[in-house]
């Protein structure tokens, strides 16, 4: 199917985001598949879902994806092309895990913040409210989404999510945007999940500057180097030597003392 920007701008925006996610993770094979009215993508640390819900039969049939894998490409004129792939690009076990993630992340997520349209400080606000670190690359994707609602996994359900969704990171950040068509008869939603990692600023180690004295390659030059002797330690050693010289050991102890029997 061909998707033109001027005919289906919301779907085109979702596919352009999917294309950027795939493009920035070229070493990873994307999992891109349909499931009736929904289209799913997982690629490295990103996941996305496009959900088309309509009460109009014609619209519903127009966006019936089916349970098949897809390939995404862009034509020279800018149109997006979504074509059926020959097979899924992953093992069945991984596909099951992907479906588990989308299933449980959907109803366990909690809305925490809404980005106001035209807000130039949306990124700092998202970081402040969610305490999730957003990379420079993620900023570009968020800009493409626009002004979404921000979701996180409900803190009360972290253990439940880990149990049901397997090894997926529970500290994800989800950006959700929605539009309505045909007087509210059609609702289209896109959600992009960011697999957020720890804030690198919190785990960064303080770097201490260490000054080292460069040693000469010619050992004769050591004689010309000014080496400061620690006076206190040297005086203490002289005092200890003097005490040892003045110490008188009794002759009986010298004759009978055996260090192995001490």
Describe the structure.
The protein has 262 residues and is an alpha+beta fold. The chain has one domain. The protein has helices at 9-23, 57-62, 92-108, 122-130, 136-145, 158-165, 200-203, 231-246, 251-256; strands at 2-3, 31-35, 38-43, 46-54, 70-74, 80-84, 109-114, 149-153, 173-181, 186-194. The strands form two sheets. A seven-stranded antiparallel sheet has the order 2-3-4-10-9-8-7. The protein is globular. Residues 220-235, 248-262 have a biased composition (Acidic residues). Residues 216-236, 243-262 are annotated as: Disordered.
Strand-helix topology:
Layout: E1 2-3, H1 9-23, E2 31-35, E3 38-43, E4 46-54, H2 57-62, E5 70-74, E6 80-84, H3 92-108, E7 109-114, H4 122-130, H5 136-145, E8 149-153, H6 158-165, E9 173-181, E10 186-194, H7 200-203, H8 231-246, H9 251-256
Antiparallel strand pairs: 1-6, 2-3, 3-4, 4-10, 5-6, 7-8, 8-9, 9-10
Largest sheet: 7 strands, antiparallel
Q: What is the 3D form?
A: globular
Structural class call reads: alpha+beta
Distance between the termini: 94 Å
- Strands of the largest sheet, in order across it? 2-3-4-10-9-8-7
The number of E-state strands comes to 10
Query: Poorly predicted ranges (pLDDT <50, ≥5 residues)?
Result: 198-219, 257-262
Helices, by number, come to: 9
Beta strand %: 15-25%
The average pLDDT is: 76
**How many structural domains are formed by the residues?**
1
Q: What percent of the residues sit in helical stretches (DSSP H or I)?
A: 25-40%
Order of helices and strands: EHEEEHEEHEHHEHEEHHH
- Rg on CA atoms, Å: 34 Å
